[in-house]
Amino acid sequence: MGSGGFGLDYWLQWQVLVCAFIFLLPTIISIRFIITKNLTPYLLHHHHLWIPYWRNLHPTWLLFYRIFAFVSMSYMLYLTVLRLGPFVFFFYTQWTFVLVTVYFALGTIISAHGCWMLFNELSSPIPNQERDKFLKKDSSSVGDSTVKDNEASFKPQMQLNQEAGFWGKLMQNIYQTCAGAVVLTDIVFWGLLLPFQTGDDFKLTLLIGFMHSLNAVFLLIDSALNSLQFSWHGLAYFVLWSATYIVFQWVMHACCLTWWPYPFLELATPWAPLWYFGIALFHLPCYGIYLLIVKAKASMFPRSFIRWLPPILSFKA
């Protein structure tokens, strides 16, 4: 073990090869799945990204919430780096916290764009050509009420029903990645690390407690409000996210680090393969818990609280 990182003898231990196989195998499977399969079994429309799930909730409320969440998380991240230094980014918690912040930043932009489109569509006049067409068609046989209905139904349906583009799909993938990551982060911290951490090197502060709870709270509230789809297909991105963190840790320890931010990542122990296997397996229930929460929302409120739609806009959700 050298001052510039772990030596060659450390990396040639048998448990290192076993641990490498344990996290590389699901990583390769996930990459192959992403490349060869369509990870969107449903058609992701643009309106799924910014129209709330609830009937009477205007999209601007979802926009305001995402702005609030983004600003709050950005400020907490700033305070964390200011007080603890940039080394906090060696921890999975900060990786996940940054990812959730990016989700809310992207969600804010897309929600703002959607609300702007909605405002333009609701305030735009009916094109004269189309109005004349309806008036000519209906004036001879239909009353004024029908003409008005036709005029109202001709309000442009804009891009509400169009398929989401690159940024929309990116937002969807980040959302599903965050879902599993926040559950994994908070359960490991509150259920595994905190009860067994002793000594002066670790002290639970209000800021640390917020970092390991508000990430999930903010995302859960957004999940309760949004219309984003959620399926097992997003597990592949969650696995890649964690695998990227493991690769980062291994590279840093090969180059310069000699301490592990999490004791269960330590490789110089015969128990290392069991720890790595347990962590890899733990991704399934972490992602599954969040999936059940989203499915519960859809099953408990399937019709009574359907997605919000302006009366003059009709399309298939």
TrEMBL record:
Transmembrane helix found in the keyword field: yes
Transmembrane annotation, as ranges: 12-35, 63-85, 97-119, 174-192, 204-225, 237-262, 274-293
Superkingdom to which the source organism belongs: Eukaryota
Keyword Aminoacyl-tRNA synthetase found: no
Gene Ontology annotations for the cellular component aspect, listed alphabetically: membrane
Keywords: Membrane, Transmembrane, Transmembrane helix
PANTHER family on file: OS02G0130600 PROTEIN-RELATED, TRANSMEMBRANE PROTEIN
Identification of the protein by name: Transmembrane protein
Native organism: Ambrosia artemisiifolia (Common ragweed)
